[in-house]
What does this fold into?
Amino acid sequence: MIGFACIMVTLLASACASPAPAAAGPEPAGWPTEHDIIDEMLLKAQVDGGRISTVSSSLAIERIEPLFSKREVRTGTVLYERSASAPTRFAVLLEQRLVGRRLEEKRKHIVFDGRWLSEIDHEKKQVLRWELCGEDSDPTRLGGRFPLPVGQSRDEVKKHFEVEVITGNPEAGFLKPITEGRDLQGMRLVPRRNTQVSKEFSRIDVWYDTDTWLPVGIETIDRKDNIRRVRLVDPVINPVLDEAQRLRLQGAIPPGEGWSREETPCEVSPMEPTP
It folds into this structure.
């Protein structure tokens, strides 16, 4: 806000000191408009990003709650897998938490195996599972519980959001590492009124690696002004997953005794997938 205020003061001072400039003439014929640029970006994100079937990456998540002057950083890994013949699967494996200057082991895994969404808390030795069906059956879709901006349809993005171009790299220090060794393109997604996502978020900023159109940085601001930033560190695109990674995507309960498990099935069982 300080930077924005300084810009506004400068503009006002200039307006007072000199006459208003003449109105700009019409843009040359064929000159791309911002609408054209946005459409091209969304199409690249859809087509080029659509070639991404698997991602393995380290990640870091920063959460800031201004009301309570609270900042927390969690680190871990993420696995993502999708195909035309099977539901999308993902596993977010959080291993450490930094609160202030205190770093602690805090293992929690969030896994969607294509049908069940699981939260695996290693400290409590607790597994909570929810069966997703109906409109919730794909939590990675726009408007879902975990919307992932990988290969999303251009029309679907425009249906849920007003899209703006972000010029330059992200300003937040937490996201600076994603700028090293790559060219980025940023998009600001402002939820349209009366959409499901508008009830939770004020805006979502996404920065894509223009070589692959993989989203490597995300910043969200929710309706309570809480900020969440996600950065991918050294992502590997379309790797061959090993057995341990595949078990994680299945939401396998870690070995050992003392684990509790609670499941919440759908009220109506979803249809079994066609072989």
